[in-house]
Amino acid sequence: MSLKETTVMMTRYRAWANARTYEVVLDAPEEQVTRERKTHFRSIAYTLNHVYVIDDIFRAHLTGTRHNYTSRNTADCPSVPKLWQKQQALDAWYVDYAEGVSEAALGEVITFDFVDGGQGAMTRAEMLLHLVTHSQYHRGFVGDMLNQIPIKPIPTDLPVYLRKFRMGNG
Fold first, then answer.
1. Alpha-carbon distance 32 to 146, whole Å?
2. Are 121 and 109 in contact (CB under 8 A)?
3. 107 DSSP 8-state letter
4. Dist CA 167 CA 170 (whole Å)
5. What pTM, to 2 d.p., does this model score?
6. Helical spans, DSSP H, in 28-114
7. Which domains are present in the chain?
8. Please, which residues have CB within 8 angstroms of residue 95's CB and are 6 or more apart in sequence?
9. Quick check: helix, strand or coil at residue 15?
10. Which class for 27: exposed (0-12), middle (13-18), buried (19 or more C-beta within 10 A)?
């Protein structure tokens, strides 16, 4: 599998996994989704908002545009339905980007400033793959918080995705 094929598959996987996570979160009682918990990003909603913010920051890096974020989350968190609308649009943007970017461009190094200081440099492919692992990491926190409600999260593992889309079941 080429680097391009890998990035396309992984951005599609990420969009699928985000959809499965939001499916459960949107069905959960709102007071549980926004309830402050002993976790780094305070709540399920703010954790999902953090994922969106980082995704949006890296979109700006990939497109060479400026973003207006000054931290890795925002002071106010959109409602989860509004956040899901924004995340779906961004997930679709990333899938389209991965499908349209050339193999050569995936190897280009982009320098950028981190919102909390310092400079970074990553290839386009590294950025896309980082976003896949970053969102998976935080979906794990969301799953833990859902279990505390208790609501069972839907599995979002890569093998489950591959089974569904390669074998037609899952």
1. 9
2. yes
3. T
4. 8
5. 0.95
6. 30-34, 44-63, 80-100, 103-106
7. 3-167 (1.20.120.450)
8. 8, 11, 12, 15
9. helix
10. exposed
**Residue-wise pLDDT tens digits, 87-117:** 999 999 999 999 999 999 999 999 999 999 9
Alpha helices, H only, 64-150 = 80-100, 103-106, 124-148
Asked if residue 52 lies in contact with residue 20, where contact means CB atoms within 8 angstroms, the answer is: no
- Give 51's contacts (C-beta < 8 A, 6+ positions apart): 18, 87, 134, 135, 138, 139
Query: Do residues 53 and 63 lie in contact, with contact meaning Cβ atoms separated by under 8 Å?
Result: no
Fill in the amino acid letter for 17. A
- What is the C-alpha separation between 87 and 135, in angstroms, rounded? 11
- Give per-residue pLDDT as tens, 41-97: 999 999 999 999 999 999 999 999 999 999 999 999 999 999 999 999 999 999 999
Residue 51 exposed, middle or buried by CB count within 10 Å (0-12, 13-18, 19+): buried
